[in-house]
Amino acid sequence: MHSRFKILDSFLLEHQIYWRSEPFHLCQTQQQPWKEVNRPLVDWLESLDNESIQTLKEQPQLLVEELTRFLPELDTATQNIRFDNTALVGLDLPRGTAEGIPGRKLNQIVAMGEAVLEHHHGKEWLEWCSGKGFLGRILSQQSDQKVTSFEWQQSLCESGQKIADDQKLAMNFVQGDAFSESADHVFNSNQHAVALHACGDLHVELVKKSVSHGLPAVTISPCCYHLIRDENYQAMSSIAKSSALMLSKSDLRIPLQETVTGGERVKRHRQLEMSYRLGFSQLLKAELSIDEYIPVPSIKKSELAEGFESFCRWASEVKELSLGSDIDFDSYLIQGEALFWEMEKLSLVQQVFRRPLEIWLALDRAIYLQEQGYEASIEEFCERSITPRNLLIHGVKIER
Length: 400
Ligand SMILES: C[S@@+](CC[C@H](N)C(=O)[O-])C[C@H]1O[C@@H](n2cnc3c(N)ncnc32)[C@H](O)[C@@H]1O
Prior knowledge:
Elements: H1 2-14, H2 16-19, H3 23-26, H4 39-47, H5 50-58, H6 60-68, H7 74-79, H8 103-118, E1 124-128, H9 134-143, E2 147-151, H10 154-166, E3 171-175, E4 191-199, H11 200-212, E5 217-223, H12 238-241, H13 249-252, H14 264-288, H15 301-304, H16 308-318, H17 329-371, E6 374-380, E7 391-397
Parallel strand pairs: 1-2, 1-4, 2-3, 4-5
Antiparallel strand pairs: 5-7, 6-7
S-adenosylmethionine is lined by residues 129-131, 134, 151-153, 156, 177-179, 196-199, 202.
Organism: Vibrio coralliirubri
Pfam families: Methyltransf_32
InterPro entries: Methyltranfer_dom, SAM-dependent_MTases_sf
């Protein structure tokens, strides 16, 4: 883990210029930060047509192969971001288990459930930031052990408790704030703590509390790394603390941009929305001399269908800007569409740094566990198509 960390750390540090710039903003400036340092890469990007951009975006392996020609260290980095897949055979779920669990979520929960059961150490479970306790329900049924489900939202605790009671499961929901001192009362040294997709500081807090309460095991699947209370990332392990890599909240969003590629409809919708936003930004620059980026709130799909002019009128109303009547909307839409492809092109480069950054963060958590007397491992508990947040970090306390 240490050697992987060092490789990824230097890779990220040496290539900051490629991943720190935000493609959405970068495509709107005429500057190309890589022009001076990597002319062959810039030339290659400029040679790509829209179809090739789309193909490379959808075929990560091919993209890595192409980019390795211009960024040779990418090869070693890529070899160090792979982890074993959890060996899953499937769980036999009693009827009613899936009640109220949306499709893909069910796959994630069952996979994580099986993975933690496989690595179980302890006599009971603590489910952190449990929501309605979907994962806890599976753990309770399959292991016949008590589950404490800790959750902030009272309404989720109530509905989770009701389902558990109806199914006669030994689950106890506790409403509370993960960051409060009272959260410590839900811990005891018999528990295996688990957290499926607890955001940023919430899973960090669980790892720290599990260690301080001497839990026999803790297993997390992290998500939303940017949801932290500090302005910048606070490293956990000593190796990450001594790294020169500083990560802001917006850097911490980069791994999350690796979303599951949606179907054609989702793709078309995104293209339309981004082209409208970029086109609107061009319009503001030219018509109202507004050079800084004006963030426009999210828009309903049905409103997008009204067309570009309607989008611009809506956005300017929201932003209290007045647009004249003789605007050539078509020309701004054409500019927006061109910028969309420019953005897609630039994000091909950022794309290959997303997983290395995510693994850097995962290794920080795992190495912290090792430093605290746990045997730590990282694996992928499901296919990325089920959720791209498919890392499982697992720690088992070493008995002395
Ligand atoms: C992304 S959801 C994950 C829920 C569940 N583990 C799952 O995968 O379905 C995160 C959960 O954390 C809860 N949460 C947010 N802030 C919290 C806090 N300060 N203390 C406890 N729970 C919190 C939310 O209410 C939400 O249910």
